[in-house]
């Protein structure tokens, strides 16, 4: 049995947590690389003006590089701003440039501003022949609940929340969850939290275990069994424009991200195919 089976349908997963430094970018990058290395076509969209995801995937993101900004604010298609990566032929990336920092303000006057990313992804998938469509689209959000994250919640089917095994881990989570509820009620009925990933776990501290237990009690099966340990190789890799899987494949950081990706893929295989559009009226 294939440990990385194809998902029942294309999975658009928004990686969100308005708290900074919890492992959103690190998880997006390493899960994306893992899925791609094990044969699943993956598109990673960097939605943080810092462009850390782009950096970690070795994708240029200097001002002027075709980026997510052009797709959101101008009328570039997603295909026009999608770049290959060196990590895997299965992995593509839409980078973010610092221009994106202005996008939240520029978008305010744009029609259907919350739907820009969703439209962009839909158009992209429609244009691609089925055999080139990604199995996974991962969207890395900035550390805020502004219009960019809102676009990502409207674009996604699923939310993956990384939670750092630290003090105040759960602080702010209520606000994120109520934002997701609001989006589901008003903008995107298809969105729900599907996955919680515990990150930066330090097995030497009692606190890390307490936080992990608390998160598991609260979120039950949504929490992946795989836990990402705090591991220096994980934090070194982006400096070399690499994921930890390519930088140090034997490290615990690498093996834990592969395991988390395997679990994610196994769950994806259980998903029912997207329902076909209703037949046109006779
Ligand atoms: P976010 O995108 O949520 O702001 P990052 O993924 O950028 O968070 O992670 C914040 C910092 O923590 C980065 O410097 C990153 O390299 C480091 N980091 C993330 N995960 C780990 C880990 N498992 N072990 C060690 N350092 C980590
Ligand atoms: Mg980040």
Overall description:
The protein has a single domain (11-268), classed as Rossmann fold (3-Layer(aba) Sandwich), CATH 3.40.50. Helix 5 packs across helix 6 (147-155). The protein has 11 helices and 7 strands. With 282 residues, the protein is of the alpha/beta class. The model has no long low-confidence stretch (mean pLDDT 95). Strands 3-4-2-5-1-6-7 form a 7-stranded mixed β-sheet, with helices on both faces. It has helices at residues 24-37, 52-56, 68-72, 103-106, 116-127, 147-155, 173-186, 206-219, 232-236, 244-247, 252-269; strands at residues 11-15, 42-46, 83-84, 91-94, 136-140, 158-164, 192-199. The structure holds adenosine-5'-diphosphate and magnesium ion (MG).
CATH superfamily: P-loop containing nucleotide triphosphate hydrolases
**Major beta sheet summary:** 7 strands, mixed
Sheet-strand content, in percent, reads: 5-15%
By DSSP, the count of extended strands is 7
| Shape by Cα distribution | globular
Q: Please give the radius of gyration in angstroms.
A: 18 Å
Number of domains: 1
Topology-level CATH name: Rossmann fold
CATH architecture assignment name: 3-Layer(aba) Sandwich
Name every ligand kind in the structure. Answer: adenosine-5'-diphosphate, magnesium ion
Q: What letter string, H or E per element, gives the SSE order?
A: EHEHHEEHHEHEHEHHHH
pLDDT < 50 runs, ≥5 residues: none
Number of DSSP helical runs: 11
Widest beta sheet: strand line-up: 3-4-2-5-1-6-7
């Amino acid at each position: 049995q294939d440990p990385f089976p194809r998902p029942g349908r294309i999975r658009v997963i928004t990686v969100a947590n308005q708290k900074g430094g919890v492992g959103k970018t690190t998880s997006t990058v390493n899960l994306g690389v893992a899925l791609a290395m094990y044969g699943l076509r993956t598109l990673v969209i960097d939605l943080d003006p810092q462009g850390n995801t782009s950096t970690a995937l070795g994708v240029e993101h200097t001002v002027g590089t075709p980026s997510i900004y052009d797709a959101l604010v101008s009328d570039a298609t997603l295909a026009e701003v999608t770049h290959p990566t060196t990590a895997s032929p299965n992995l593509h990336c839409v980078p973010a440039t610092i221009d994106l920092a202005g996008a939240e303000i520029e978008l305010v006057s744009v029609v259907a501003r919350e739907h820009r990313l969703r439209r962009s992804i839909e158009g992209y998938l429609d244009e691609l022949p089925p055999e080139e469509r990604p199995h996974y689209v991962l969207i890395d959000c900035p550390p805020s609940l502004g219009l960019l994250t809102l676009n990502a919640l409207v674009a996604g089917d699923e939310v993956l929340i990384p939670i750092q095994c630290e003090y105040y881990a759960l602080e702010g989570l209520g606000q994120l969850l109520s934002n997701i509820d609001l989006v589901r009620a008003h903008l995107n009925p298809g969105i729900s939290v599907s996955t919680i990933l515990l990150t930066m776990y330090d097995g030497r501290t009692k606190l890390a275990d307490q936080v992990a237990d608390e998160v598991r009690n609260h979120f039950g099966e949504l929490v992946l069994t795989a836990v990402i340990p705090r591991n220096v190789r994980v934090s070194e890799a982006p400096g070399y424009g690499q994921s930890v899987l390519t930088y140090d494949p034997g490290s615990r950081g690498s093996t834990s991200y592969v395991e988390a990706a395997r679990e994610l893929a196994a769950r994806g295989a259980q998903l029912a195919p997207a329902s076909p559009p209703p037949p046109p009226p006779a």
